[in-house]
Amino acid sequence: MSRADLDKDPTDVAAMFDGVARRYDLTNTVLTAGQDRRWRRLTREALGLRPGERVLDLAAGTAVSTVELRRSGAWCVAADFSLGMLQAGAQRDVPKVAADALHLPFRDGAFDAATISFGLRNVADTDRALAELARVTRPGGRLVVCEFSRPTVTAFRAAYYVGLEHVLPAIARRVSSNPEAYTYLGESIRDWPAQPDLARRIAQAGWTGVAWRNLALGAVALHRATRA
To answer: Per-residue pLDDT tens for 193-211?
Structure first.
């Protein structure tokens, strides 16, 4: 079993996700009490997809999020640098590409929209990944980042961080194929910037009109933006 550290070495991160791949979808559903399904739907709706548009689903994992995006009628490709995750979702009938978020294998302006859900936090260079997403999205195209964030209610925030430290690892030991990865998960969430800070970084990477919507009292946030 393996886990990454907060330096987010790409080899370590990929190996960690290879280790959780077998039971990844089940673990997510258990840990979120089924809210992961709702968050995928809201991500699709926030992108405002139209039939025939081309959409990049980066850090797609087992491609369950890509299948949700495809409900819009758009053409969607799942991209991830964990081969284990892509293989775990092999039965999902969507295009899949092994891809590094820092060096995307797509031409400039290839997509009408792009999204990354619960993956930006695991990239070694957040700003470069946001710039790569801007590069492969056409001017006027849309971005949605769905990511864990900073709870906005003080009392809930304190309880939430206690849960990340104690409850989350305990549940992961029962359901995950690599429970050590969920210790990293808690650490990376606590280390992640608050909503306004992430919005500024998105804007600096070539996106305009950045706004966000808090979900789960701010424990998750949807950031939306348009390609300049």
So the answer is: 999 999 999 999 999 999 9
**What tens digit of pLDDT does each residue of 71-104 get?**
999 999 999 999 999 999 999 999 999 999 999 9
Total structural domains in the chain? 1
The helix or strand, by DSSP H or E, that contains position 24, with its residue range, turns out to be helix 24-31
Q: Could you tell me if residue 158 is inside a domain?
A: no
* Residue 127 marked ligand-binding: no
Write the burial class of residue 209 (CB in 10 Å: 0-12 exposed, 13-18 middle, 19+ buried): exposed
Is 62 assigned a ligand-binding role in the annotation? yes
Query: Is 226 annotated as ligand-binding?
Result: no
- The annotation status of 197 as a binding-site residue, yes or no, is no
Quote the domain boundaries for residue 88.
Answer: 10-151+193-227
Does the annotation list 117 as a binding residue?
Answer: yes
